[in-house]
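To close the chapter, one final illustration. This time we ask the reader to focus less on the individual chains and more on the assembly as a whole: which components sit near each other, and how the overall shape emerges from the parts.
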Amino acid sequence: MINKTVANAQQALQGVQDGMTLMLGGFGLCGIPENSIQELLRLGIKNLTCISNNAGVDDFGIGLLLQQHQVKKMISSYVGENAEFERQLLSGELEVDLIPQGTLAERIRAGGAGIPAFFTPAGFGTEVGEGKETREFNGKMYLMESWLRSDFSFVKAWKGDTAGNLIYKGTARNFNPMMATAGKITVAEVEELVPAGELDPNMIHTPGIFVQRIFEGKDYEKRIEQRTVRTA
Amino acid sequence: MGLDKHGIAKRIAKEVKNGMYVNLGIGIPTLVANYLPEGIEVVLQSENGLLGMGPFPTEEQVDADMINAGKQTITTLPGSAIFNSAESFAMIRGEHVDLTILGAMEVSEKGDIANWKIPGKMVKGMGGAMDLVASAKNIIVAMQHTARDGSSKLLKECTLPITGVDCVKKIVTDLAVLEVVDGGFKLLERAPGVSVEDIKAATAGNLIVEGDVPEIQV
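The assembled structure is written out below.
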């Protein structure tokens, strides 16, 4: 079996350069590639276009990249948890493309699946639809949306094997599986890396063909945005 | 005067029927889960990738990898399923979700909804709202009838950037239950202690009143 293992984030991010388009998995802070983000911060690479559902919070996740002004453009669906983001956007320092969440997910899926465009009703008649081709199907109006692809996709999984196969846990799955398919180079960081053969092939969420580099991450903080509990 | 947010949630809960798959937005819609009628089976969809959303966890159960679309920690239930974001929106866009309940800043008498942006002020993004309103079979809006400055949120035309066109079916506010029909907002029920005249005064769009308007029962 082809071995995709690299030793650490430093090796996994070799070749990432200024001006690249990156995809970063996660929903809020759930399922984000913490180790890869730390390495991006250390490298200090700039003028990045980041495709991610959210933009982290001020002091965690992609928010840290924004603080260091490493991001030129964000492509996201919701960025409400990040005051620095809103400030940079309103002041014009940051380019932002806000995309309906389902359209974002499907554009990434389409990128990975080799489908250059598709029609969706989301955003028809709104500013999202401005300048886009529209078409009627069965009496309903749809917008044409195009695929998204990245130079590097950074995804986070629960378990992975040396062949690059991935299993996610809970709602940390979110955008990670689609982003894994849409990267020229996909870097997977996992909480537990095992030899090929130890994961049940029936349980694999992302087949290893989509992953070029895999490493076992460390020191996961897994910060919780809204800790809501009930009394037992 | 009028219903508080729990009252609005209680009234909306009566619209939820046995066997429905339901997506609840953030805010008042989330409260609807607390007031679902006894004895019915309803599956809550959270668009970040969960069907069968359970209650908040106990301290011991808290898991950073289990959140809802509002980023709150939650639990699963027997029969829950977890999936990715593309599959989640296939459920929504493919009209497999029966009912969407969400908040709004404005609704027009044609059923247009605005709830995602205040130009120059609030730029948070639409999240899944545009996908939800473009494809839901049935959309109920939960909101206050008027804004803090007293201006009506039920308008002839939305003034804010819209989230979707011609999609809202029903609105439950602190003052009334209304249905979007050809020609305007049809008044179905009024909150206890609220008169038809009060609702007329608070509604900028065309209000259609036919016969006696019953009080909301919650």
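Chain A touches chain B through 58 residues (CB under 8 Å). The radius of gyration of chain A is 18 Å. With these observations in hand, you are ready for the problems at the end of the chapter.
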